[in-house]
């Protein structure tokens, strides 16, 4: 598999007129703040995560489950690579570990149909959509989701042609070598192709953008001093230590 791992390109986007295979192959190189375009997270895409909210989804002001993908942006200050430290903000006891599949867009996707959506994917990577634990949903605060270092990704991108079914990949989370969560990319409200189709129905995804599939129910929590390892079968393993941050 390492021979099929591709280092993240040193460009702001995946050029649409080049195949992913043209980028330098280097499965041993850790990503250091990979220069993707815009990174999008998706709330409540995991069926069990939505079900866990129970009657809360029917309360005001929304009064119903979401009918379209609920997106948020992880800005560039959150981007770190494999092996980089994740700061635990001062006054925060623990962070939520958001293991998820990262979908790297390879060409512009605007109002694409579900049947054509996977043709817009350049490859896949492992992401940790880190959050400060919070009770709110639909509209998470930037202070909870967008702190420095809150989106580790890597350690490489696997070309889409090497991933036969992105909706059937086992996902495991380890803390200090101990397995704390085992799930998969299955069981989503919107699998990869449908998610791309539904998002591109109201906004254009550009080459180089990163769309995260969504975090499973029961996301584990980790404290400063612990080491998080996320494995997605067929994609790779992303590992990052958590360190106490003296800043606010």
Describe this structure in words.
With 248 residues, the protein is mostly beta strands. The protein has a single domain, classed as Fumarylacetoacetase-like, C-terminal domain (Fumarylacetoacetate hydrolase, domain 2), CATH 3.90.850. The chain is built from three helices and 15 strands. The protein has helices at residues 47-52, 142-145, 192-200; strands at 5-6, 39-43, 70-74, 79-80, 86-88, 95-96, 99-105, 121-128, 151-159, 170-175, 178-184, 210-212, 221-222, 227-232, 236-244. The strands form three sheets. Strands 1, 2, 3, 4, 7, 8, 9 and 12 form an eight-stranded mixed β-sheet that branches. It has a five-stranded mixed β-sheet with strand order 5-15-14-10-11, with no helix packed on it. A two-stranded antiparallel sheet has the order 6-13. A hairpin with a 3-residue loop joins strand 14 (227-232) and strand 15. The longest helix is centred in the C-terminal third of the chain and has 9 residues, at 192-200. Mean pLDDT is 81; it is low at 7-33.
């Amino acid at each position: 598999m390492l021979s099929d791992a591709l280092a993240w390109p040193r460009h702001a986007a995946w050029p649409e007129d080049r195949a992913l295979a043209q980028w330098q192959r280097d499965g041993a190189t850790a990503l250091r703040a990979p220069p993707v375009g815009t990174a999008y997270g998706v709330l409540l895409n995991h069926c069990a995560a939505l079900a866990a909210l129970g009657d809360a989804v029917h309360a005001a002001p929304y009064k119903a489950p979401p009918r379209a993908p609920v997106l948020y942006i992880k800005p560039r200050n959150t981007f770190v690579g494999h092996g980089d430290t994740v700061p635990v903000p001062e006054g925060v006891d623990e962070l939520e570990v958001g293991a998820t599949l990262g979908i790297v867009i390879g060409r512009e996707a605007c109002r694409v149909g579900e049947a054509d959506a996977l043709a817009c994917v350049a490859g896949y990577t492992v992401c940790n959509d880190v959050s400060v634990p919070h009770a709110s949903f639909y509209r998470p605060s930037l202070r909870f989701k967008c702190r420095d270092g809150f989106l580790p990704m890597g350690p490489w991108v696997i070309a889409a042609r090497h991933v036969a079914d992105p909706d059937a990949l086992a996902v495991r989370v380890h803390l200090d070598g101990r397995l704390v969560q085992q799930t998969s990319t299955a069981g989503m409200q919107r699998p990869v192709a449908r998610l791309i189709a539904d998002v591109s129905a109201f906004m254009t995804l550009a080459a180089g953008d990163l769309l995260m599939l969504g975090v499973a129910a029961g996301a584990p929590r980790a404290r400063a001093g612990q080491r998080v390892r996320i494995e997605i079968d067929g994609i790779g393993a992303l590992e990052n230590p958590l360190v106490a941050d003296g800043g606010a």
